[in-house]
Amino acid sequence: MDFELVRPNFPFPSCRSSEDSTSPGLGRRSESRATEGAQIHLRAESPAYSVSSGISGTSRITTGVSSDSAAFRSKASSKASNSEASMDAHRQREQKWMSLISTVPPEQARKNKKVRKLLGEGVPASVRYLVWSLMTNAKSKGVTGVYSQLIKRVRVVAFADMERDVKRCFGEHPHFQSTEGPLVNLLQAYLTMVPDVQYSTGLTLIAGHTLLLAPEEDAFWIFVSMMDSALRPYFSANSTQMEVDAALFSRALETNDAQVTKKVLVDMGINPAHMCFPWFTTLFVGSLPGDYVNRVWDLFLYEGVPLLIRVGLAILYCCRRAILEAASEDAVLYYLKRPSPTWLPPTPDAFMTLAFSFKVKDDDVRKQRIKMEKQVKKQAQGQGVRLVANGSGISFPRDTYT
């Protein structure tokens, strides 16, 4: 097998759709031997479809028309029952989340087993921003009156770039377009508060997506918390963090797919940072459909950077055949940055099942990330040069992913 998929090491036992679908459980595979043969179905149009691998590319579609009115009524009744059951399940998940949000201290959320279990079952859209606020401990950042003061300060240097990107990226949302709209306000406030962060379009995409679900000031503090916990180094003048995480991604790719690794990193000589930068600095906004992004964020806020690496591997797998047939670096990077929705698994949860199926030891990624950060900084100080994560500038312990 060119592309090895194994039982993941972090169970989400009964993951449901982020929008409360009644699709079967997803997430990491059960420990039961009976589920070893579980399959993930990709659309037939996917470039990964029909590629020899550990994931089945086959699907069955059956159609039929019945003139039997009794059968029709039976089907209608069954659909109504299923719909009612789905609504009941939706309300139950809402109630579980609201109860959990009121009882679990935010600073303990990422270590709480009940939180992990509910994330696996799904996050109703009606409570999603409250869940994100819990996971990021956003309320601990918030200070009454600070946001309103920040948006009134002198416009930041990047203000014109912000306006341009808001119009370009969120043109379908008229309420974002004003120079005093919520998205411009949020970015103005953040860059005023944290002037060492270098503006890029990714900030607009992440902030805008947050605002699609949360009220303005709540969105601001969620955004601040996400930046502080994981993303801020990606927007620094120093590229160390991106180089480290891109190197970790390249090693994960090498472990899971030797053929694509050879084509992309060796034959084409693509810098893995060029693949990771458009993903990690946007949290996949623009690369994945909105409902897929929501599901990625649900789990990213619990798992951290290892989840970004898994999602990157999943996107690469979905584009696999197109990448192997590509003749240029530009074509490869285009496919990875903007994969066709028809290439993806049919639901957000099926996509996350794929992401959790790759051979990646999340705890080892976290540990190696810390060690490599120190190593790169030390090397950069000693050599006086900027290191590039090209797979050779950073040494890895050989057992990192094995």
From TrEMBL:
Q: Which residues form the Rab-GAP TBC domain?
A: 122-304
**Gene3D superfamilies the UniProt entry points to:** putative rabgap domain of human tbc1 domain family member 14 like domains, Ypt/Rab-GAP domain of gyp1p, domain 3
User: Pfam families recorded for this chain?
Assistant: RabGAP-TBC
Q: Which GO terms describe its molecular function?
A: GTPase activator activity; small GTPase binding
Mind telling me which InterPro entries this protein's record contains? Rab-GAP-TBC_dom, Rab-GAP_TBC_sf, Rab_GAP_TBC_domain
**Chain positions covered by the region annotation Disordered:** 1-40, 52-89
Q: Where is the composition biased (Low complexity)?
A: 52-86
Q: Which PANTHER family match?
A: GTPASE ACTIVATING PROTEIN AND CENTROSOME-ASSOCIATED, ISOFORM B, RAB GTPASE-ACTIVATING PROTEIN 1-LIKE
The protein in question is named: Rab-GTPase-TBC domain-containing protein
Question: Taxonomic lineage per UniProt?
Answer: Eukaryota, Fungi, Dikarya, Basidiomycota, Agaricomycotina
